[in-house]
User: What shape does this take?
Amino acid sequence: MKIATYNVNGVNGRLPVLIRWLTETQPDIVCLQELKAPDEKFPEQAIKEAGYHAIWHGQKSWNGVAILSKSSPISEVSRSLDGDDHDTQSRYLEAVIDGITIACLYLPNGNPAPGPKFEYKLRWFDRLTLHAASLYASGKPVILTGDFNVIPTELDVYKPERWVEDALFRPETRIAFKTLVDQGWTDAIRKIYPTKVIYTFFDYFRNAYGRNAGLRIDHFLLSPDISRHLTAAGVDHAVRGWEKTSDHAPVWIELSKTAH
DNA sequence: ATGCCGTGGAAACCACGA
Assistant: This one.
């Protein structure tokens, strides 16, 4: 089974690209981020016609996450992280599909750093890490995926020296990511390609895609039960070159079978 | 070194993204 994550950067502005990508690649499960649409403007009908069930957690103008499933029903678990009752940003959606817990997340960007936005990012990260610990401890098959807005290592950015002060690459951010992964999660792309240069985001500016000046910030973190079924992982790099495309490329994993 | 582009929403500019 194939599971994908894709930061669409506007689900309605991106609809032709999204539908084409779904039709061509046929993932079984898809996590979307940056819908940039309120719940009532989610393109439910077009996605249904493409063959997918969907749940979504939208927000006017910003953020927004969704989970799509081709054949299996989606059982929603939650649409927020504990730890901040005043957080109104739609950045988290969790569901069970085929017995697998899927956490679809859009971690805050955090720039400019330092500052309140960076503090919000780190607090959000703490809440995610706390919740991830309980998911991990459950022993169930779990996938944490989405736009983490984290460049994990120097291998994951075209010019590390230019990013050291950036919220995506600052030491606090990398440490937070490492702390999360060290609970026992497997970074799927790095399990398959330990040292390969792989990017999932390319700026719209300066021909970043053409120059391969990218970042790897969209990730799959797998529980042990899922990790041992991992057979392949990759980035649909060419999608970033399509007309009217997102600045992110879709990322996917392939599992040998459902893990339970 | 840099929002230079792109999106959404409100209002013919602004906030925001990474």
